[in-house]
Amino acid sequence: MSRRPDIAFIPMPQRAIEVMLDELQVNASDVIYDLGCGEGQVLITAAVQSGIRGVGIDIDPVRIEEARSKAEQSGVSDRVTFREADLFESRFEEASIVVLYLLPHLNLRLRPALFEQLKPGTRIVSIDFDMGDWQPEKTIKLDIEEETTLYFWTI
User: Fold this and answer.
1) Nearest alpha-carbon partner for 18 in 48, 60, 58
2) Alpha carbon of 20 to those of 44, 109, 137: distances in Å?
3) Residue 137 sits in a domain of what CATH number?
4) Is 83 contained in some domain?
């Protein structure tokens, strides 16, 4: 990709991933899109635990290679794919769940595409950052390795 990442990669604490997946009641029929997927840990964990299909999108080719390698090592590369792409130019309408770990201004920039592309009932979770005036249906604060907040919405 010609553009640099908008934010630095920060891995999501594994405990936060597990709480998020449990709260979303993820099951094998779900299709999860992780927008800004980093090294793919959310999708890999969900695929191992629940058998989901998933797509991770990240602009950083190094992170995408890490994600593909970890998916292969975890035996889930048949269920999760990772695309090196600009998430603001990506399609994700097949998602039943969208995961975001972006900064507030990026969430707000992405919000119109979420409403345009996603079907009613699609669940969205954002780690640590809200969506401005779109109030979450639920917020969970976790005090684990560092404080992590999960915000949940439904289209």
Assistant:
1) 48
2) 14, 23, 14
3) 3.40.50.150
4) yes
The pLDDT, as a whole number, for residue 155 is 96
Give kind and range of the element (H or E) at residue 30: none
Does the predicted model carry a pTM greater than 0.85?
yes
Residue with tokens 């590369």: 77
Q: In which order are the strands placed within the sheet that holds 97-100?
A: 80-84, 53-58, 31-35, 97-100, 123-127, 147-154, 138-143
Query: What pLDDT shows up at residue 69?
Result: 98
Query: Would you say residue 108 lies in a domain?
Result: yes
Q: Please, which residues have CB within 8 angstroms of residue 139's CB and are 6 or more apart in sequence?
A: 149, 150, 151, 152
In a 13 Å sphere around the CA of 120, the CA atoms on its Cβ side amount to 0
Which structural domain, as residue segments, surrounds residue 134?
A: 14-154
Residue-wise burial string across 24-58, b where 16 or more C-beta atoms lie within 10 A, e elsewhere: bebeeebbbbbbbbbbbbbbbbbbeebebbbbbbb
- Stretches where the chain sits below pLDDT 50 are 1
Instruction: Please count the structural domains in the chain.
Output: 1
Q: What residues form DSSP beta bridges with 131?
A: 134
**Beta carbons of 86 and 109 less than 8 angstroms apart:** no
> What is the reported pLDDT for 1?
42
